[in-house]
Amino acid sequence: MRATKAIIHLNNLEHNILELRKNINKDTKICVAVKADSYGHGAVECSKRLEKIGVDFLAVAAVEEGMELRENNITIPILMLSLCTPEEIPLAVKYKITPFVFDKEYIQLFADEVKRQNIKNYPVHLAVDSGMGRIGCYKEEAGELAKYISCTEVLDLEGVCTHFAVSDCCDCESNKFSKRQLDYFLEAVENIRKEGIEPGILHASSSAAFINVKGSELNMIRPGIVAYGYYAGDVNKKFLEENNIKLELKPVMTFETQVSIIRNFEKEQSVGYGRTWKANGKTKIAVLTAGYADGLLRKFAPFLEVAINGKNYPVRGRICMDQCMVEIGNDSDVKRWDKAVIFGLKEDGALQTAQDIADKAGTISYEVTSLITKRVEREYIE
């Protein structure tokens, strides 16, 4: 077994969902995003726990992701947030993956396949583009498309949805744009009702919106990163405290590796590709068994620190595909085979979170956890 692994605390995943429930109405449904392998946390095991604690829906981005869940006995409804190809539609239907639809061609493709498989009342969700600019119909088309879905006689309009573009930003202009998006979406819903069609489950809010965009909770929320223990954008811990909102999240993942060897360095001796770092004097370098093929991007090198025995040590030189190097100095208690924690929970020995790395890299915590590759073993614990 490789020493480089991601420890997944399933009890923290459950804790975060329970924290979310405290902040929504008791009848509001929850759809957790488990796409991209649950943002790097392992979709199958996370989904099993989410199903066990009563989450209403799961959300994936690809047919293969939904298939993997079904093949591992996940039975609750699965929404597919992105579009699939015509060739994938038979599998989507076979594995009971609920699509987002928004034009007649795509609707008809699903209707034809549902008929071919002799299925009735197959659920679909009508997506409305209220300002994100990716997928979705316009509000003027919503009523007609809802009617078209009904006329297929095999598809059921289970829900109507949209997605916010800047709900994780708290500046005045962003808040105004989110409000316009919500109003636009509700107008689309009203156009559906004017056709005498019940729109079903209404959902728009991802991790930030149900808190930051008043009135956007609707019938269901679609949390992503908050389920895995991180706040979304400007809707962070400080924002919640200022607005007297209690949402205490716990990171779900700890990413750790091991010291494989310790090397003595002389002054001016370099380490790594490109010789980008040279020792200022006599020092020691610990080589760790994790690199960019595990999810540590090369661009992390200038600022990344790694915790060993309760102290942070800086990465030196370029991060390699399978290894990285940290300077431990001459007086360190670091020994060969010691555990080195890159990010995660304090109780696991981490001194930084994925958010800390994201802040320094100019990105988001979603990217940092999703980068952890498949060759890194996931160890699931309570």
Write the layout of secondary structure elements.
Elements: E1 5-9, H1 10-22, E2 29-33, H2 35-39, H3 43-52, E3 57-60, H4 63-71, E4 78-80, H5 89-94, E5 97-101, H6 104-116, E6 122-127, H7 139-151, E7 155-161, H8 172-194, E8 201-205, H9 209-212, E9 220-221, H10 237-242, E10 253-265, E11 270-271, E12 277-278, E13 283-288, E14 305-308, E15 311-316, E16 324-327, E17 339-343, H11 354-361, H12 365-370, E18 377-381
Parallel strand pairs: 1-18, 2-3, 2-9, 3-4, 4-5, 5-6, 6-7, 7-8, 8-9
Antiparallel strand pairs: 1-10, 10-13, 10-17, 11-12, 13-16, 14-15, 15-16
Helix pairs in contact: 1-3, 7-8
Write up what this structure looks like:
It is a single chain. With 382 residues, this protein is an alpha/beta fold. Helices cover 30% and strands 23% of the residues. It has helices spanning 10-22, 35-39, 43-52, 63-71, 89-94, 104-116, 139-151, 172-194, 209-212, 237-242, 354-361, 365-370, and strands spanning 5-9, 29-33, 57-60, 78-80, 97-101, 122-127, 155-161, 201-205, 220-221, 253-265, 270-271, 277-278, 283-288, 305-308, 311-316, 324-327, 339-343, 377-381. Strands 1, 10, 13, 14, 15, 16, 17 and 18 form an eight-stranded mixed sheet that branches. Strands 2-3-4-5-6-7-8-9 form an eight-stranded parallel β-barrel, surrounded by five helices. A two-stranded antiparallel ribbon has the order 11-12. Strand 11 (270-271) and strand 12 form a beta hairpin. Helix 1 (10-22) crosses helix 3 and helix 7 (139-151) packs parallel to helix 8. The longest helix has 23 residues, at 172-194. The radius of gyration is 24 Å and the shape is elongated.
